[in-house]
Specification:
alpha+beta; Nucleoside Triphosphate Pyrophosphohydrolase; eight-stranded mixed β-sheet; 16% helix
C-alpha cells in the first residue's frame, strides 16, 4: 500500500466551517465535499503546504488566516486504490468569508461542523474535521 502525505485545512469563521466541492477536473474524488487539501512535497513542512493550498484554492494569504490548531495526523485507508493517505489536519480562523475558488472546486459552503455528516465527502472528512475541533 502506497503511503501519501497530504494536508487538509479547514477555515472557521463565526463558528462555521468552510467546505469545498471538488470539480470534475481533479484526478480523485470528483464532486465530493472536502477541506482545502494538497500533497506535501518532500522539501516542505505540512504547515507550509497548508498555507500554499489556502492561497491557491481559495485566494487567501497567510495574513488572512490564523492557525488555531495543528492536529495529529490521521491515517485514511483507500483500499480501492491501494493508498494509505496520511492526513495532516489544520484549523485556521479567518475574517474573510468571500473567497475565490480555483479550478479544483466548483462550489463552497460555510456550515456548522455537525452538518458535515449531511454531505457526500472525501474519505473520513468528518473524522479529520473533528480532530481539529
Amino acid at each position: 500500500m502506497n503511503k501519501i502525505n497530504v494536508v487538509t485545512s479547514f477555515l472557521e469563521h463565526d463558528g462555521k466551517i468552510l467546505i469545498l466541492r471538488r470539480s470534475d477536473k481533479v484526478r480523485t474524488m470528483k464532486h465530493k465535499w472536502a477541506g482545502i487539501s494538497g500533497y506535501i512535497e518532500s522539501n516542505e513542512t505540512p504547515l507550509e503546504r497548508a498555507l500554499k493550498e489556502i492561497a491557491e484554492e481559495v485566494g487567501l494569504r497567510k495574513e488572512d488566516v490564523n492557525l488555531t490548531k495543528a492536529a495529529e495526523p490521521l491515517e485514511v485507508p483507500d483500499g480501492g486504490r491501494d493508498i494509505l493517505w496520511v492526513v495532516h489536519p489544520y484549523l485556521f480562523k479567518t475574517s474573510r468569508v468571500n473567497i475565490r475558488l480555483d479550478w479544483e472546486h466548483d462550489e463552497y459552503k460555510w456550515i456548522d461542523p455537525e452538518e458535515i455528516a449531511d454531505y457526500d465527502t472525501v474519505l473520513m472528512l468528518k473524522e479529520t474535521l473533528f480532530r481539529c475541533l
